[in-house]
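Ticket #4471: structure export looks truncated?
Reporter: QA, pipeline team
Priority: medium

Steps to reproduce: submit the single chain below to the structure queue and open the exported record.
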Amino acid sequence: MAHSLLRLKEKICNTPHLMHPASFETIIQYLNSRNAEDFKMESDEEFSREDNSRYSFNSDIGVAVMNIDGPLSYKPVTIMGFDCGGASYQQIKEDFTYLVDSGAKTIAFSVSSGGGEAFQMMPTASYMRNLATENDVRLITYVDGLSASAAYGLSVIADELIMAPSSEVGSVGVLVRLMNDSKALEKEGYERTFISAGDEKIPYDADGSFRKEFLEDIQGKVDTLYEDFTSFVAEHRNLTVEAVRSTQARTFLPKEAIELGLADSVMTIESFYTHLAETAQRKEGGMLKNQLFKFNKNEETLEMSQLADMQAQLAQYQEQVAELSSVKETLALLQADFSAKDAALAEALSQVAQMQEVAVATKLSARKEKLSAVMSADKVEGVSASLSSLDDAAFSTVLAGFTAQKQALEASDLMNEIGDQGQEVEPQKQASSEDFTLKAAQAKYNKEGK
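Actual output as written to the record:
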């Protein structure tokens, strides 16, 4: 426990960093809230390569995924012997070297970090790039959230830089936070006196503020580091230094990052793993068909056999979708044809109804004309209505009865002579005879089962 939180905070606050401001403030706030504990800055005491979360490696096919998460530092940071998270350049170099020596031919960086310590970042990145080139290892970076500042410096050495949707890259700048505790000491009643040799040894003026020369010296170091950092990014992203500087240390979403040349493409995590598998397969010359391709990302495992099954299922689903689309088009055509035929049928039925109405009217008119020939005009309408339910055969039978009655009357003396008493035959008797004939005919018709 050689380094207290106060000394660690002093180191962080007075050292140039390649870190996103939001991530920097998070660390400062954490240190302020935990200033009673001790830190150790040392290598991990025990590390098992068989059970770790820093990387996953399938030696059968030579593919590995390294996780670069959280704040970055030169050495691992532990609290009382326990790893407090983040990643160190020492660990990253050690893991990368192990993977290359173990036969990895495709290595992916899964990055989710706001950056960290500037010291040894660029040498670490250059070491990995050179080692990959010497051993024909393809590097792919996948930004799974944020790759800012120092993390972006590690990301750009890859042959391909891919971003997740809504992720961010950039923050190519340098940050130093100076802490002046003169006012705090004065408020607490402390008087600080320095005895030194060398004009630049003490950063404070007599009033407790930072000396102008001290600030200029810090700014000069920041400018030098900024020049080195922007040149490093420009070299590995094939950009001009001016183009990198023009970003003004901002972070960018995928669309703008790709337009600026800070990234190459955008993919979902599923698409990235598919792309990684295809890259590895090309690297191995198509020998991965029966190999398992495993990734350990947040304790999830993806096997190549499962991926092949999913791709086969996807192809099957696509065929089914195509068939359903064809059926849908056919149904649409049939429905349109049915609608047209339904409209034509409705029109035909309407015409038939009109024709039936005309036929009924014509038939009724013809019957009235026939009845008027065998009876008086005032009887035709009523008799016609009473006979409307009869079919043509029954009507002909009734009409024949009326015709026979008329002929009988015309042949009798009742039409031309006067009765025995010398008076004419009364008209109502003729009507009564017609009524009788009508009733008799209808009774006969009903008796025959009509």
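Status: closed, not a bug. The export was complete when the record was re-opened. Leaving a note from the reviewer for reference: The chain has 14 helices and 18 strands.
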